[in-house]
Amino acid sequence: MMLRIKRVPTVVSNYQKDETEDGGCGRNCLRSCCLYKAKLPLYAFKVENSDAGKGSAAFGNENPSVDFLNSVVLAEWEDRMQKGLFRYDVTACETKVIPGRHGFIAQLNEGRHLKKRPTEFRVDKVLQPFDENKFNFIKVGQEEILFRFEPSENNVAQYFPSAPVDAASLQSVVAINVSPIEYGHVLLVPRICERLPQMIDCESFLVALYMAVEAGNPYFRVGYNSLGAFATVNHLHFQAYYLEVPFPIERAPSKKIATTTNGVKISDILNFPVRCLVFEGGNSLKDLSNTVSYSCICLQENNIPFNVLIADSGRRIFLIPQCYAEKQALGEVSSELLDTQVNPAVWEISGHMVLKRKEDYDGATEEKAWRLLAEVSLSEERLQEVKELIFAAICSETKTKAIANATICSETKTKAIANATICNETKADATVPAPSLDNVDFLPSPQAKMVPV
Amino acid sequence: MEPQLESIEGSFKFRYSEHVREALDGFPDCFTITDPCVCGHPIVFASRGFLKMVGYSRDEVIGKNGRMFQGPDTDRRAVMEIREAIKDERGVEISLLNYRKDGKAFWMFFKMCPVFTKDDGRVINFISVQVPILRKQRLWKNGISFSDQAEFSHSLFKCCRRELCWSTNVEPGSSFPVESVSENQATAHCEAGEAEKMKTSAAISNILSTLIRYSEFTGRPISRNRCCSSIGKQLAAALNISLGRIKQSFVLTDALLPSMPILYASELFLRLTGYSRSEVLGRNCRFLSGVGTDATTQYQIKECIQAQQSCTVRILNYRKDGTSFWNFLHISPIHNASGKVAFFVGIQVVDGNRGTEEPLRPAARQLNVVAAVKVAVRAWSMKFTASASA
Lengths: 453, 390
Hints:
The complex is a heterodimer of chains A (453) and B (390).
Chain A: E1 4-7, H1 32-35, E2 39-45, H2 68-82, E3 95-97, E4 105-108, E5 119-122, E6 145-151, E7 158-164, E8 173-176, E9 186-189, H3 202-215, E10 220-225, E11 238-242, H4 248-251, E12 254-260, E13 264-269, E14 277-281, H5 285-301, E15 306-311, E16 316-321, H6 324-329, H7 335-339, H8 346-350, E17 352-355, H9 358-362, H10 366-376, H11 380-404, H12 407-427
Parallel strand pairs in A: 2-6, 4-17
Antiparallel strand pairs in A: 1-5, 2-7, 3-4, 6-8, 8-9, 9-11, 10-11, 10-15, 12-13, 13-14, 14-16, 15-16
Helix pairs in contact in A: 3-5, 5-11
Chain B: H1 3-16, H2 20-25, E1 30-34, E2 43-46, H3 48-54, H4 58-61, H5 76-88, E3 92-99, E4 105-117, E5 123-132, E6 139-140, H6 149-157, E7 178-179, H7 184-187, E8 190-191, H8 194-218, E9 222-223, H9 231-243, E10 249-254, E11 262-265, H10 267-273, H11 277-280, H12 295-306, E12 311-318, E13 324-335, E14 341-350, H13 364-389
Antiparallel strand pairs in B: 1-2, 1-5, 3-4, 4-5, 4-9, 6-8, 10-11, 10-14, 12-13, 13-14
């Protein structure tokens, strides 16, 4: 049985037409017809030196020569704003922090949703093949592209305001979302010409993580929605925008479950309506990125819809499996919640609710937000099963690499025994010598190099 | 001395006079004083106790941001709480894991409070006091002490796959890509006891009294509480921190008043026009126009403002000393979180060229300022819309 829901898809590009309309060349697109004469800004981001590990990462792009977030992203976004490319002015949409302990954010946005005939979306398949006939980002107009986002070749971040493009060199682009949720709402499309469907792979996820790191600002978050978790366009893309308030999901406490050998800490999120995991740390940015990617790929292969939030400038990554669309298709969601027409994608789950109706906005309470999001969450038992799948996937990926390098096994043993020894020592109340500060326990130095974050 | 350090020394001396450092050095406590108005929110004073605690020299610490003491196991949520408190200009107290210069990590109880100018309620410093949490008084979050550690670890393991070995005993030859969770010391939350809390409060009191006393000597008094200031002044104060680092000449005017008075003026604006802050705040921008200013251009500006639209013009303006300059001016309406246009931002670029390209487009650095103001105002004013619509 195929599960489907009906909804009006969000229009993210001015070149996104109805299914019935002809998707011809806008005379300024990114297909070969127009690409040869294209000139786009290019931002080349600094890539972490794999030898030096996290210490040399782009983390804390402390004194960049180009202010990526302000000059490359937001100022250019404002430029498109003034050129009238957006369907409405999002800063004219009323917004507030809902009173309460968690700080949910509500916005009244009547212009985002179109009064159009809803389209059917298949929600029981997380992986669906790319369809050239449907809207994809190659069809957007070049004026909607803010810049290309690619790794730098000479170890330093650089910005080229206008660089010629060809199909061979074009990698990832950042485009505006013409129906923005907030100021600076953009779409990151990794490896755009490869026409990848909406699914996570290690290489693309790393690009998304680098964008968060490059912005160097915890209020610029990057998000991902899988198919079945309210992605609208089946062409691989991430979203990002800027909002200078904390998200409820970021404020929720966490409890560590495990640490991987490459230093990635995986924790449960507590006291939050949607059960999810958060990934932090890692000996390198790539380690963190890959661990999350393996987890996402595992969910994809098991047909579990999910959302991802990259927060804290790339230091914390939330992985949120969900089941709202499935419930909706099976008629299990109350009409009261359906009437709000809130599709709980990554931003909504994080605590940022965009509401279409004034009565929903005026009457927005923390309790209502909680109730809606609780419907999105997997049950405790189901999450347990999912966690086991994820850990198995991470282990087998890491195992493959570990078997190739046998010394890692004995290193792990040495580390573990060392930890045991330390525990025994502290248990026996041994004092660590600390000449100036008595009775203060100093913890063993962390494996990773100390990072001035 | 580096220009940055010069300005740090200078601003601290300006506010509190020469001898405040001696007085502060008299306290045994660990504390730092930071300046949010300087780019990067650097430490401007570090007590001897603090330097000893973290193992750095004074030169290694002055001018740096407090995040230099954070490390991989520092709880990011705690960092976020501190960041939000700074942004909201209020105090915070929290347990935090910090790192010494030699890489060793330690828990401490951290209490921070803002310091306001007495006359206009701007935040000019934050005082941060740190008290290391002593081991024998340490309580783990769920009250489990070290002796229960084995049980604690075991209860975590229950939820995980049996095949995965999560204990500290690892068999040789097998690959266990997941480490044990025995380093709960770093990961469990560490609560401070009453002793630590009282110590920090006492230290803050003493430091504040000292700063207040010395600020009175310079005639620039400070206070621990913000005096009642208008919303406009509060906004200006909040923007002072977030926009202070934008090196551009610009002003913010109040769109809700027919006289459209200036609420905020950047340093570079004052430098460009030759006026002091008190001479421009509360006035309408038209004081910049003079005999040679084209009336049509002025009318154009007026029209755009009434239509709440942005505009870019080239206008002849005059400095305080009477000299004129061509001002490539971009004006943009700024909404607050209620969705209404609450302000206009005017960004000035001195422009000698008399180009003929029409219509004029704003320069990239002007758009930069518009974007920065829009996001700052939106987030700041969200605090007020909640109560308005309730």
